[in-house]
Each structure stands twice: as C-alpha cells, then as structure tokens.
Design brief:
long-chain fatty acid-CoA ligase activity; Rossmann fold; Long chain acyl-CoA synthetase 4; AMP-dep_synth/lig_dom; 5-stranded parallel sheet; alpha/beta; phenylpropanoid metabolism; 7-stranded antiparallel sheet
Length: about 625
C-alpha cells in the first residue's frame, strides 16, 4: 500500500515506503516510514570521485581556482572597510603549508586537532588542513559551561590546537590538567613571550601563525588516503545534564547532507552555484554553519566573515551583499524589529503605502503565486528598499536552531523579496533533516518535509501516552534513518546504544503534527539536584521557551530568610504580602544572578524575571 501525505491539501511532498508496525515483543508500536517524494525509489548516490570533504574542496580548486573563496573586512584605523579575498588556489596553497607544519609536529592521520575562536579565514584553513590529513577536527567553545575547553581537550586527547589570539589565555588556563595531551598551540595571530614561557613550563610549544607556517617549509608529506567512513569531526554538544558528548561525524555524513540539500533546492530551481556569496557568523563550532560552509565550498562559492561585532552585523551584510544568509531566530527577530522601527518613523504616507503593498503581496502569495510574481511593481517601488538594506542580493534566508515565529517569518517572506526557510536537525543528524520549501506559504511555522536523504517515522512512547498509530497528537518520538547520521558518541558506546536502534536515531523530540516543529529550550542545571541554591530559596521552577529570549522562574522563597530581609529593608506584611512586593522579587532575582555569576553561566542562561510563590510546591495541589 502506498499513501502520500498532503501539505495544505494541495501538493504532495512525502511518500510512505514502509507500513506501520504494531507493538510486539515488548517494543513500542511504530508509525509508517516516510521519505521525500523525490526519492521514493531510493536515494541519490554520492559522486564516485568523492570520498571525503577534502576531495570536495580539491574539486572546487581545480574547477574555480581564481574564484574568491574566503574574505575578511580590512581594518583601517580601527574601522572595518571593504572585503579582501583569498582565492581557492591561494587557500589551497595555505592549507598545504599548514598541513605540512602539523605533520612536522608529529601529528598523524587519526590525530585530534582543536580549533578555538570566532569564524575567520584561518579557522577554515585549519579545518581544511585537518580534512587533508585525516585529522579529527574538534571545535572548542566555552558556551558549554565552565571547564568545557579543558574537558574536551582531555576527553578527545587533543595534541594540537589552533586558537584565536584573544582565547590563548583560556587554553593556557587548562594546564596542568591538559599537559598530558596538548603539545602544540598555534595562534591565529601573535603570541607574547609570557605565553611562550607559560606553555613551555608544561612541555608545550606555542607559535604565532607565521612562525608555525615555517615549521613545514620545504618538507614534503603525502596526503593520506581517506574513506567515506573515516571520522571528519567530533562536535561536542550538551544536554541538560552530564558532561558534553562528542558526536562523531564522518565524511559520508557531511557529503550525504550536502547531496540532500542540493537535491532539495535543485528540484525548485534554487540550487547554490559558484556565484553565491555567504556571510559566515554563526559559530563554525556548531554543525549548522560547518555543513553550510562545506556546501558552499563544494560549489566554488564565496564566504565572507563578519568582523566579530554582532551590533555591526547589518553593516557586514550591506558591505558583503550576500545572496544567502543563515540565521537563528534571535538575529532574525532583531532584523524584523529594526525594519518595523524604520517603518514606524517613515511617516504616515509611507507607512500606509507599505501596509497596502504588504497586504496586496501577501494576499497573492496566499493564492499560490510565487513571491517574484505576486507583486513585481510593489517589489520595485516599495520592498526594494528593504532588500537594499540587506545588501540588495539576498535570495535565501535559512533559519534553524529554534522556532521562528510565524509573524516574523511571514513578514520576512513578503518584505525582503527572499525565500525564508525553516529547518530542523541535530548535530547527530548532521544539522539538517527537514527543510521547508520556497513559495509555499502553507509551510510557514513548520520545518517542511524531510530532506531527500533521510527516512522518518514516529515511535510510540507509552509511558507518556503517545501512540504513533493514533490520529490524535502528540503521536510519538521522531526517529531518523540515513547515511547522514553520526557514527556514535566518542568513547561513549553506552550513550550511543541508548539513542540508536536498528539503524534508527531516536531524537528524543516529540511531534505535534505531521511535520515536526521543535519547541525545546535546553536549560543549564542550577546546582546539583536537591541541593539548596541559596539560603533565600527553598525550591525553584525554571522555564524557557524557544520563542522567547530569556529564562523565567517561579520561586518558593525561604520564609525565615525572606522575613528577615523584609524587616531589614522596611517591607511590611505577612509572608504572602512580602512575596507580592516588587522589592522582594528584585532581591530574589539578585540572589539568582549572583549564583549564575558564581557558576560562570552565559548571558542567555541567566534568569531575567521571577514570580515568588508563597505556597510550597506540593503534590496535593498538583504544583510540584
């Protein structure tokens, strides 16, 4: 039996390839298996010439040697100027130099190489050197919490690390714990005599970028043979508890997801090409940006880097004039808010004209017109100003990591004259598993169909009352199968077995519709379980929502502590009245902020608003 699912009752995007399975032998029931209708008869094979990400890069070097590949803004008297570019051939030559220097330090195929810092040309050059010599590229970043850099260096047994100049001190702080493993540190910039001495005290050598390039001068090292199944990178991710997990991603995983994205976009005449320009600012330490940059490199396209100031990101966009922008909702929310602010200050006449044009274009897009056909005159007269504000060439905005609100997505689809596509994936699925389609307004608020490189199904979760065979929602846990899946958690076979069964990766996410949309927010654990956070707090419930920008909490204050504070600060009334006083909320929020600073939480992990609950959390009132 073949059953196709419709989106908005008009077009068919997925096809059933396997029937549902009833619960059996203690295993939960499983819903039908679906895949993209483009590959109903099987996935597109990878090109035979490609065995690794290095092969993909070399193919582009051969085909587009003089294309601009990596660009950075020239700094003139402390101000960012225009972009200065390295061609594919120039980058290739630098990669060979860096690779020879790495090998001269005794690092061989299968060794682990750390990269720590903001996106820049030297980040990608170091990454490609890892690709060339079969090293495991291991990004380091501190948003996983205090001690994460030290933990990753030790856990992955990293022997060499490339590091942004401003992050060198963070790496040096990991000694003596990392002394056993870390033998070579390479700065993207300069190093000081004091840094050299400190590294030397722990048996490690530290080099400036130019010093390091000299190590491999006039030395010849063969580029080793690499296979699709070889590990390309280990990306460390965190859940809400425990140490970071090292997600092992193979060459085949990255090449497969690139193939799937290409197939998806080609079917809609939106494929990437050597003329595309990409703005790199989302961290290369995360799989989303890493895969996108590998994709653009495979096309011979250009990658321009931001100049590391989020407040000046729009200026980077205006100067670079990208054709493609990858973003997280927080950034798109800022762009949206900025556009609305300009609109509100444009005067009544302009505001009225914009609203009329917006309503007209949206109405015709809703009728099924492509956005370039819905209101071409208004695009030229009204919306072109919005487009110019984003560089003038933007044709595709990809949003991931969290849900983008429907109102923001709709506005950007209409006003920017660019396609806005939401996607869903995890590090374990190599970033993208679902991607929406251009010119499909029915997909607003969804992540669209699965890419033509994965199979998906739902598995029942009986303990939560989720039935994959039911017609009601939520129906089950999202499971994903395909060549793009990770190869396991590094040194953690136990965790790998927990999430992998019969080739299926169990995402831990629950679906609420045929096309899943995640509404999850990972929270930092505030102290050990059942350990009092503060003498002022008896219990706390912390809530985060992917559509919001900060955490909130409901707090049970300690009665004696709060009354004592109230007496000192002239706040009168019984305990319940004190809890309702804004000054008490400010006091407790201050306590939580202090705890956050002591535990070195990141800005987005801080609680920004609290409600004080005078009644204790208890089961009798279903409040626990």
């Amino acid at each position: 039996m073949e059953m196709e699912m419709e989106m908005g009752g008009r077009k068919k995007f997925i096809v059933e390839i396997e029937e549902a399975k009833e619960a059996k032998d203690g295993k939960p029931s499983v819903g039908p298996v679906y895949r993209n209708v483009l590959v109903r008869d099987g996935f597109r094979p990878l090109p035979q010439r490609l065995e690794s990400c290095w092969d993909s890069f070399c193919h582009s070097v051969e085909k587009y040697p003089n294309n601009p590949m990596l660009g950075e803004r020239e700094m003139l008297q402390g101000k960012a100027g225009g972009y200065v570019w390295l061609t594919y051939k120039q980058v290739h030559d630098l990669v060979l130099q860096v690779g020879a220097s790495i090998r001269s330090c005794g690092v061989m195929q299968g060794g682990r190489c750390g990269i720590y810092g903001a996106n820049c040309s030297r980040w990608v050059i170091s990454m490609q050197a890892c690709n060339a010599h079969g090293l495991y590229c291991v990004p380091l970043y501190d948003t996983l919490g205090a001690g994460a850099v030290e933990y990753i260096i030790c856990h992955a047994e990293i022997s060499i690390v490339f590091v942004e100049e401003t992050k060198i001190s963070e790496v040096l702080k990991t000694f003596p714990s990392t002394e056993k493993y870390l033998k070579t540190i390479v700065s993207f910039g300069e190093v000081t005599p004091e840094q050299k001495q400190m590294a030397g005290n722990f048996g490690s050598q530290i080099y400036s970028w130019n010093e390091f390039l000299l190590l491999g001068m006039n030395k010849q090292f063969d580029i080793p043979i690499k296979k699709k199944t070889d590990i390309c990178t280990i990306m460390y991710t965190s859940g809400t508890t425990g140490d970071p997990k090292g997600v092992m991603i193979s060459n085949e995983s990255i090449l497969s997801i690139i193939s799937g994205v290409n197939h998806h976009l080609e079917s809609m005449n939106q494929e990437f090409s050597e003329t595309d320009v990409f703005l790199s600012y989302l961290p290369l330490a995360h799989i989303f940006d890493r895969v996108i940059e590998e994709l653009f490199i495979s096309k011979g396209a250009s990658i321009g880097f931001w100049h590391k100031d989020i407040k000046q990101l729009l200026d980077d966009i205006k100067v670079l004039k990208p054709t493609v922008l990858c973003a997280v909702p927080r950034v798109l929310d800022r762009i949206y808010a900025g556009l609305l602010e300009k609109l509100s200050s444009a005067g009544v006449l302009r505001h009225t004209l914009f609203n009329a044009a917006y309503s007209y274009k949206l109405r015709y897009m809703s009728k099924g017109y492509k956005h370039v056909e819905a209101a071409p005159l208004f695009d030229k007269l009204i919306f072109n100003k919005v487009k110019e504000g984003l560089g003038g060439n933007l044709r595709l905005i990809l949003s991931g990591a969290a849900p983008l609100s429907s109102s923001v997505e709709t506005f950007l689809r209409v006003a920017t004259c660019a396609h806005v596509l939401q996607g869903y994936g995890l590090t374990e699925t190599c970033a993208a598993s679902f991607v929406a389609r251009p010119d499909e307004l029915t997909m607003i608020g969804t992540v669209g169909p699965p890419l033509p490189v994965v199979d998906i199904c739902l598995e029942s979760v009986p303990e939560m009352g989720y039935d994959a065979l039911s017609r009601t929602t939520p129906r089950g846990e999202i499971c994903i199968r395909g060549k793009c899946l990770f190869s396991g958690y590094y040194k953690r076979d136990d965790l790998t077995k927990e999430v992998m069964a019969d080739e299926w990766f169990h995402t831990g996410r629950k679906t609420f519709s045929s096309f899943p949309k995640e509404n999850m927010y990972q929270l930092k654990i505030w102290g050990e379980a059942f350990t009092p956070l503060s003498s002022s707090i008896d219990a706390i419930w912390i809530y985060g929502n992917s559509y919001e920008s900060f955490l909130v909490a409901v707090v049970n204050p300690n009665i004696e502590s709060l009354k004592q504070w109230a007496e000192v600060n002239g706040v009168s009334g019984d305990f319940s009245t004190i809890c309702e006083d804004p000054r008490a909320r400010k006091h407790i929020l201050g306590e939580l902020t202090k705890i956050g600073k002591e535990n070195k939480l990141r800005g987005f992990e801080f609680i920004k608003a609290v409600h004080l609950e005078s009644y204790t959390f208890d089961m009798e009132r279903d409040f626990f």
